[in-house]
Amino acid sequence: MNFFSLLKDNKYFLSYLYLFISILGAILPMISNFNFAMEYGSGFDINQFIKLANANPAAESISRDLLIGASAVFIWIVNESRKLKIKNMWIVFLGTFLIAFAFSAPFFLFLRERRIIEINSK
Fold first, then answer.
1. 60/69 Cα distance (integer angstroms)
2. Residue 44 confidence (pLDDT)
């Protein structure tokens, strides 16, 4: 059995894979944010953060890529969560702005997979 058939045949595995990715998506950016705060002052200076995120063409490209991609996916998340009546979406919405999009997008996918499993088991 290869990895892709495991994902196709086992929705629980896929949902927990998304959960694992969301945990990494919370931890890794938080480590970087902590390092930023330690290097550039005791607080989190959002203006300095944005300035550094656009300090050179490579950083600017990644920042713009994330802004555009995350905006589109966030709109889809809102729409999809309403269609499927997914519970606990407050975690996704707060997590997007307080933790990282790298946390909230895979966490939404975890909630979505669990909701689909719930719908299909009825």
1. 14
2. 80
